[in-house]
Design a protein that fits this description.
two-stranded antiparallel ribbon, 2 strands
């Protein structure tokens, strides 16, 4: 992930720093978008990175880069997922923030996620893979905290019903 000095330099128009910031974000954004948007993940990733590049100068608090980008990526991934047919991609779950998963387990998890609607995938990814609190997930998805609780319950139940590794 980019450091604060790189972010500030990129906000001031330093193209090398901007490249470093985008390069630092790309793997994480790709995993996040791929987990939610599945086959549309690369398109959602590209749209996210374009928006980050375009709007980074307006980010008030450079320390808030990660939540800001996560919000953009989540919305882009849901938007792209809703427009495309679901075809599972397995590669995006094999590594999550340095945690290597058993490839067969990653495929099983990805298979089950692919069977869920995009909004259920999004809440599971945000809460269970990204580790966001209910309040943070509610802010990311722009819904009430109570809505997150009910969506998360339904998404976890749907995941459990489909899980058979």
């Amino acid at each position: 992930m980019p450091n604060l000095d790189q972010i500030r330099a990129a906000q001031r128009g330093d193209l090398i720093a901007l490249g470093d910031v985008l390069d630092g974000l790309m793997p994480w954004v790709g995993r996040l978008c791929g987990s939610i948007a599945l086959d549309a993940g690369p398109d959602a990733t590209q749209e996210t990175m374009i928006q980050v590049m375009r709007d980074l100068a307006g980010l008030r608090d450079p320390a808030a880069l990660r939540p800001w980008v996560r919000r953009i990526a989540t919305r882009e991934a849901i938007r792209h997922a809703e427009r495309r047919r679901r075809e599972p991609l397995f590669d995006h779950l094999e590594e999550t923030e340095g945690l290597l998963l058993d490839p067969s387990l990653a495929r099983d998890v990805a298979r089950v996620l692919a069977e869920l609607p995009p909004d259920q995938r999004a809440i599971l990814v945000l809460r269970d893979l990204e580790g966001l609190s209910e309040a943070e997930a509610a802010a990311e998805l722009d819904v009430a905290k109570g809505t997150i609780k009910s969506r998360l319950h339904r998404a976890r139940e749907a995941f459990r019903k489909r899980w058979n590794p």
